[in-house]
Amino acid sequence: MSRYFISGAQRAGAFLLLAALAGCVQLPTDPRLIDVDRLRNAIVTDHAEYVRALVKAGALSPDQRIPAPAYMEGTPLITIAARAASLRVLGYLLSAGANVNARTPAHETALMLASFFRDADDPDDPRSYARHEMAARLLLQAGASLENDPGSYTPLAYAAYQGHNRIVRLLIERGARVNGDAEDGWSHANTPLMMAAMQGNRNTVLVLLRAGADARIRVIGGHTAREYAARYNHTHLVRVLSCAESLGPGEATAKRCG
User: Fold this and answer.
1) pLDDT tens, 122-149?
2) What residue numbers bound the domain in which 101 lies?
3) What is the 3-state secondary structure (H, E, C) of 43-61?
4) Residue-averaged pLDDT of the chain
5) Between 203 and 11, residue with greater pLDDT
6) At a CB cut-off of 8 Å and minimum separation 6, what does 253 contact?
7) How many helices (H) and strands (E) does the chain have?
8) Which of 8, 196, 204, 224 is least enclosed by beta carbons within 10 angstroms?
9) DSSP summary character for residue 27
10) Is-above-0.70 flag for pTM?
11) C-alpha span between 75 and 63 (Å, rounded)
12) Cβ count near 50 (within 10 Å)
C-alpha cells in the first residue's frame, strides 16, 4: 500500500527524462511510442513537467489509461496520481481537464484512492497521510463525487477502513452519506461504520456515530458493524456498537456509548 517502486533500469533512464524536459530529446507524438514505465514512475515521483510535456506534444491525453500494479488492464492517470498523492501531477491533470471521477477497473475513483492510501505505515500518525489528505482536498475542490455507483464502496468507507480520521471528517463535512446507500436497514456494500469496526478503529467508529451512522444496518448476506467487530476480535468495540444498536443513530449515541 505504498508508492510504486522505481527500478534501477528506470533510474538509468533519468538522463533521457531530464534531456527531454530540457528540449534535447524529441518527445513522442504517438501514444504507442510512450515508455509506459517511465511515464508511470514520473507520475508516482510527481514529475509534473514530464507529464505536461507529453500532453503538450500530443502523445498523451489527460484521461489516458496506462497499466499499473493491480490495474494491468489500464487505469486513468489521475488514479495513479491520487494513489501516490503526487500533488503536482494531480493538480496539472485537473487543470488539463482530466475526468475527476474516472474509475479504475475495480470502480475506484481517485478520491477513494486518496482516502485509502498513505505514505507511511503508522496509522496513528496523521503525518502518514497528510499528503493524501491534500490530494483529497484537491479532488474535492475539482468536483470529485463523494459517492460511488450503487452497491459500491465509497471514499468515506475507504477512509474509515484505514482510520484516516481527518479525511473521514473532511468527507462528512462535505456531505458524504455516513450510511452509504443503505435503505430500510440493509446495505449492498459494507457501510463506513462496518469498515471501521472490522479494523478496530475505535476513534473512527465514534466519529461516524456522532455523524449519524446507524449501527443497526446489516449488509445483505452478511453482518452488522457489531458482528464484524466480534468476528475480528475487536472486543473493545463490541460493547460500543451494542449500545449504539440499542439507542439508534443520533449525536447523543456516541457520547453515551463511547
Assistant:
1) 656 667 789 999 999 999 999 999 999 9
2) 1-145
3) HHCCCHHHHHHHHHCCCCC
4) 89
5) 203
6) 209, 210, 215, 243, 244, 247
7) 15, 4
8) 8
9) P
10) yes
11) 9
12) 22
Listed in sequence order, the residues at least 6 apart from 74 whose beta carbon sits closer than 8 Å to its beta carbon are 65, 66, 67, 105
Coil, helix or strand at residue 231 = helix
The separation between the first and the last C-alpha atoms of the chain, rounded to the nearest angstrom, is: 31
Q: Is residue 184 a part of any domain in this protein?
A: no
**Other residues' Cβ atoms within 10 Å of the Cβ of residue 98:** 23
Residue type for position 191: T
CA-closest candidate to residue 155, choices 112, 118, 196, 103? 112
Tens digit of each residue's pLDDT (9 = 90 or more) over 14-67: 444 544 544 444 566 665 678 999 999 999 999 999 999 999 999 999 999 999
Residue 13 domain-assigned (yes or no): yes
Query: Is residue 177 in some structural domain?
Result: no
Residue 218 lies in a domain: no
Cell representation of residue 231: 468476528
Adjacent-strand bridge partners of 65: 76
Predicted local confidence at residue 16, as pLDDT: 45
Given a cut of 90, whether residue 157 has pLDDT beyond it is: yes
Give the DSSP per-residue string, 109-148. Answer: BHHHHHHH--SSS-TT-GGGGHHHHHHHHHHHHTT--SS-
Cell of 80: 495513479
Residue 221 CA to chain centroid, in angstroms? 26
Residue 180 has pLDDT above 60, yes or no: yes
pLDDT of 7 over the 80 cut = no
The number of domains in the chain is: 1
